[in-house]
Amino acid sequence: FVQPGLIDPLSDAELTNHYAALHSAGITTQVLQWTADSGSMHATYPNPLPGYTTTTRTDVPQRVLSAAAAQNMSVYVGLQTSAAWWQNYANNADWLAAEAITTTALADQLHARYGHFASFAGWYLPFEVDNVHLAGPTQWDQLASFYAQVIGHLKSLTPDKPVVVAPFFNASTGMGPDQWQQMWTHVLRSARLDVIALQDGVGVGHASAADLSAWFSATRNAIREARPDTKLVSTAETFVGPESSRTPMPLADLVAHLRAVAPFVSANWSFSYDHYQVPTPRGSQAPHQADLRYVATGQVD
Q1: Average pLDDT value for residue range 7-26
Q2: Cβ neighbours for 258, distance < 8 A, ≥ 6 positions apart
Q3: Which of 60, 67, 153, 268 fits as disulfide partner to 104, beta carbons 3.0 to 4.6 Å?
Q4: Which helix (H) or strand (E) covers residue 216, if one does?
């Protein structure tokens, strides 16, 4: 996963080096986390939807898709984010219906502008579902209705391109793995999601390595029961600490977390190698170099 704010200030040479570093670490897939913000009415590309203002210096989707294509990488293009999601979740059906309309309009525009890129592999829906704020079947139905509307439109626009979500859980509060499985079974029966990129939550402190098996197993079981074609991948957190003081996760810890979820997933993604491991022009080379040695040898320093 990469956020627009990391890409926008990079020079063309820095951007080329960034994607070369991703490629050298074996990364083949990237998620551009969002392209617009429906709360602030901001966009990351020129000439956005009516009422939106471009707040980036560069055309971020174009730069991501172009740089990824040069490295034979695939990109899932994120639609809109909004801070209002964290107040409404799927509890406010009217707000969610309005966001569905924005999603479809944004998808139409993004596809028209960027659909020709060979690296444009699919779509990402940025609203992150968790195990605390969707308490029961009413909210589950409203979430499934939102997914059905937007995925139906995305599939009519790009029938062969997958749709991805990245939920998360907090093992210390909210519903447990059994109810989490029940929720996703309920939602997946009517939502044609192609990929669930479940966040492992270890870096931010929502879970420990010992919790991962129960939560990933529950998600896999929901998929098997309701929509077996859906893929489960892990989104490994590659940082430690709160947002204000995050540092790269030690490689040994990251590898342990990947091994813990390996029986349940078909691929490993991250939040975020781009932000915490790729060396910036002034940053440390150490995390990336350690990862390259692991890729080459299978040994953890």
Answers
A1: 95
A2: 234, 236, 268
A3: 153
A4: helix 212-226
Residues 34 and 78 sit within 8 Å (Cβ to Cβ): yes
- Is the omega angle on the peptide bond into residue 145 within 30 degrees of 0, that is, cis? no
Note the pLDDT of residue 281. 65
3-state SS track over 181-239: HHHHHHHHCCCCCCEEEEECCCCCCCCCHHHHHHHHHHHHHHHHHHCCCCEEEEEEECE
Q: Is the model's pLDDT at 282 over the cut of 70? A: no
Task: Please name the residue that has the structure tokens 């139905």.
Answer: 141
Q: Is 222 in contact with 184 (CB distance < 8 Å)? A: yes
Q: What pTM was estimated for this model as a whole?
A: 0.96
Residue 283 makes CB contacts below 8 A (sequence gap 6+) with none
| Nearest partner of 241 among 290, 276, 197, judged by Cα | 276
List pLDDT tens digits, range 24-72. 999 999 999 999 999 999 999 999 999 999 999 999 999 999 999 999 9
Whether 161 has a pLDDT exceeding 70, the answer reads yes
Rounded CA-CA distance 199/203 in Å is 10
Distance between CA atoms of residues 7 and 48, nearest Å: 18
Pairing of strands 29-32, 231-237: unpaired
Tokens 């439109």 locate to 153
Strands ordered across the beta sheet of 268-271: 29-32, 74-78, 120-124, 163-165, 195-199, 231-237, 268-271
On whether the CB atoms of residues 258 and 268 are closer than 8 A, the answer is yes
Please give the backbone phi and psi of residue 265, each rounded to the nearest 5 degrees, phi first.
-120, 160
> Whole-angstrom Cα distance, residue 211 to residue 225?
22
